[in-house]
């Protein structure tokens, strides 16, 4: 049997000024056979597709995989380029394909489309027909419109945040595809939306109440006739009509059971809406850093400061406060600033530099910070990932520099990324345990590693691009009754 595979991923902050371009996607996009060569053996959804299909002896027809990260609204040019390519390639092979495996993030918004993923599927269906089996892997932070089930045969979401199960999600989708093609099962799917918007920092599935939802999901998966269950926590900073949580169940020819499962999980989420939208123990920047310093004095492991609101990896609220409080032996990896990197490269190692750092977007970024320090390292930030989410994947931070600025080990990069594993520290000659305080701008992914490495996680709710307080934004497309945005 022969299966098509493709991927198109973006997590869109619609409030972010400007557009995400085709060039942004093409920097790391894969085409044709590259998809198989570069994703085989990786902890990605597409890697999971490949794993199962090759093990079962299925022939693969790869088209493309492209990701634009988590940035501003996607240009229509991006959608047209990749979706037209999928349509063209799948149309040519339609008579030879038994099914299609797709990875679509679930929160991509373009200039013209709020619900991009449903439109991607609809466009592909227009060339392969309504009978083609199409299984779709998606990110846990997808905003799903129920209309997607009119186009996809079945939908499978990550069940963990941190997304350590991306590869397994691809395998779940591929195994269901195999069972369907062999007529061992007949997938029936249901979706429920509890009208609830969850800021990402509260979607960590290792902590309650998100953990409780996943635990209930696991209980349902043990029931006879249940093929798969997903809980999508949504992406809060997309101003779209379908924003928010969704629960999805795939059963074997039992639509009533699928509906029972999704309704139960949606009710559980709604019953826990306060914990999922407001959380506990969020500090202001000043108070959080002061607390972290006090804890570090008696801690045996690093204190981890989570600056979760930063989506550009260059907001300066935390850096300013670290300097203001004269914090010592702190690490701030992966601060994006290509201009500062260039100055450091031109100066060279052991030279003292004085540079403006951060705030490259001019949007809720805190403004640049003047930093003076000694250049410790300059070079290309390239390596193969070793962490649980990126093992074996090529990582490229671009030209990189490390500066010792007072008590701060400050890593400056050309391309944006968040600290989710040890690599940005260990690949550059240090260990996390060398520091008393470590700053990450991740949301939940860092927890896969730093819950063990750190003594305590201190969450600061800086006034960055994606704060937990959603009231600072004016939503125009979200319908009434979605908590907490339009709850009344």
If you had to describe this structure to a student in words, what would you say it looks like?
This protein has 488 residues and is an alpha/beta fold. It has two domains: 2-277, no CATH class; 282-467, no CATH class. It contains 14 helices and 18 strands. It has helices at residues 22-26, 33-39, 45-55, 76-93, 116-128, 166-181, 210-221, 255-271, 273-277, 285-296, 317-324, 338-347, 423-426, 447-453, and strands at 2-12, 30-31, 59-71, 99-104, 133-138, 154-157, 187-192, 226-232, 246-252, 282-283, 303-307, 330-336, 352-357, 369-384, 394-405, 408-413, 437-440, 456-460. α7 packs antiparallel against α8 (255-271). The chain is globular. The mean pLDDT is 97.
Helix content: 25-40%
Unreliable spans are none
Total number of distinct structural domains: 2
Which term fits the overall shape? Answer: globular
State Rg: 22 Å
What is the helix tally? 14
- Determine the N-to-C terminus distance: 52 Å
In a nutshell, what does this entry contain?
The chain is an alpha/beta fold.
